[in-house]
Amino acid sequence: MDPKVNRRQTILDAKKGLILDAARRVFAERGYHETSIEHIAREAGFSKPSLYNYYKDKEDIFLQLSLREIDILLSKMNANCDDSFSSMKNLEGMIRAVFDTFGEHFYFMLTLSHFPLVVLAHHENSQELHRQFASRLMRIVGKLTSVIARGREKGEINTTVNDENCARYITGMIKSVFVHWRMNEKMGDAEQEIAHIMTFISQGVLFYESR
User: Fold this and answer.
1) CA distances from 149 to 57, 91, 107 (A)
2) In sequence order, what are the residues at sequence separation of 6 or more whose Cβ sits closer than 8 angstroms to the Cβ of residue 173?
3) Long-range CB contacts (< 8 A, 24+ apart) of 29-36?
């Protein structure tokens, strides 16, 4: 790539990242519906007209930010997983990545968990965005599924429930904690919740041959 083109792209990406970081703070403070493009521009240090050079509107910012946060979560899950670890350690590492991501930006993640489907429904690229969201969410389930499958192959996991269903049940447990926190509008004890989920996995959902 031409060095000038590469430099322009680097600057563009950096400015878009600054806007998304500012938007995350504003969405966390105000929620989706009470946030305006003016709020985001002010927080990012941009004028409203200049902001439109990078994103079409508030909906576009929210959608791109949401996709970015899911990608960050997937990266953390990958970083907490290693083929040399036991299945239980890998599962705990990935579950911890989810809780860490949620806890780091709690109020924005609350907003994201309230994700307004109407935003997607009325967005000009709604089908493509639906596809991107579905793909990322399936990758999360897929990561858990692959760990369970490897655990079964290694003789660490023994259950008649198929691998993908086990993964979906685990994500369901995690989601139930976030729903509870969302209802209370405050974050609970993440370490305690992780411990409870891991106990339930080992003693209830998955049956380990060592028992």
Assistant:
1) 42, 12, 34
2) 197, 200
3) 29/107, 31/111, 31/114, 32/62, 32/111, 32/114, 32/116, 32/119, 33/116
Residue 22: closest CA among 33, 8, 36: 36
| Phi, psi at 9, each rounded to 5° | -65, -40
Helices (H), 45-86: 48-51, 58-79
Residue 65 CA to residue 17 CA, distance in Å, equals: 9
Token reading at 67: 């996709």
Tokens 């990561």 locate to 143
pLDDT 10s digits, 55-89: 988 888 988 888 888 899 899 999 999 989 999 99
Q: What is the pLDDT of residues 152-163, one digit of tens each?
A: 998 888 888 899
